[in-house]
Amino acid sequence: MKKCIFVVICLFLIGCGKYNEKDAYKELVKNVENLKSYHIEGELLIYSGEDSYNYDVDVAYKGGDCSFYRVSLINKINNHEQIILKNDDGVYVLTPSLNKSFKFQSDWPYNNSQIYLLDMIVTDLKKDDSLKLESTEDGYVFTSKVIYSNNSDLIKQKVYLNKDLDITSVEVLNSDDKVHMKMSFNKIELNKDYDNDYFLINSNMSGEVSKTMEELDAIAYPMYIPVNTYLTSQDKVSLDNGERVILTFDGDKPFMLVEETINVTDDVDTDIIYGDPYLIGDSIASVTDYSISWMSNGVEYYLVSDVMDYMEMIDVAESISVSAVAK
Length: 327
Description:
The chain has helices at residues 2-15, 21-33, 118-127, 310-320; strands at residues 37-48, 51-62, 68-75, 81-87, 90-95, 100-104, 132-135, 139-145, 154-162, 167-174, 179-190, 218-219, 229-239, 242-251, 255-261, 269-273, 276-280, 283-287, 291-296, 299-304, 325-326. By secondary structure, the protein is mainly beta. It folds into two domains: 18-204, Lipoprotein localisation LolA/LolB/LppX (outer membrane lipoprotein receptor (LolB), chain A, Clam), CATH 2.50.20; 218-261 and 288-326, 2-Layer Sandwich (Phosphorylase Kinase, domain 1). The strands form three sheets. Strands 7-8-9-10-11-1-2-3-4-5-6-16 form a twelve-stranded mixed sheet, with helices on one face. A seven-stranded antiparallel sheet has the order 13-14-15-20-19-18-17, with helices on one face. Strand 3 (68-75) and strand 4 form a beta hairpin. Helix 2 (21-33) crosses helix 3.
């Protein structure tokens, strides 16, 4: 009888899963730290006020003396693709449809939390002394602090695993405990072979190239403006290939917004950017202490202020990316 009870207890424990939450965490860390490479396919959802942005995400990672990364983000509404590359030469953001390449003077991905990189997700788990481990009916949930230097309101992540310890999704939450970003992992391939050429600029700039816009289809105005700040001038300048609009805002938090049609060339054009890559609306932006620049729908935006902090500038920029007032 005692033997039967023992067998029943063992079967019950096996049915509930072979790991408790602490063992599951240790096993996850060990598995990810031993990876030489990985490939991820998934979907990223970003909530911005009442709006949301949905991306198809494809990630390639190859470890070594210099770790290589390739992150493709395709906006599911307009099919606009941008690619973040890290290789021997540095960190780049590519926009293949515009033949544009930006080289960032940045420590990406190590200077911030990263919702779509396995190694960076686990790094955040390891660094948190107050890490919360939970077992659920479907698997496990690990909750840790995160660091997004360009958005200090994002404070924690929830990492969801199934019973086989596969990461199924990650949520990043703000100080109000609301989800700001969610990454769903649809496919994870471990230790996939990659050639170094896969992470080069020229290998990632193929495809159909857009034509240069001759004029701005619309002037985009920010829906969010700091208190006691107002539009004082609006100037339009004709360029050899397109148009430029300069919006000047004065008051307590003065800033300038420049909108310009992008000149698309046959050859890949690479610019040096001082800042960090940051997702704003439907585009990867460059964010510094005094400026934000990004491209969307054939238009390049540049916002600069020596008074506003970067969180205020991001609020303004994100409100621009979801509004456009026709001429």
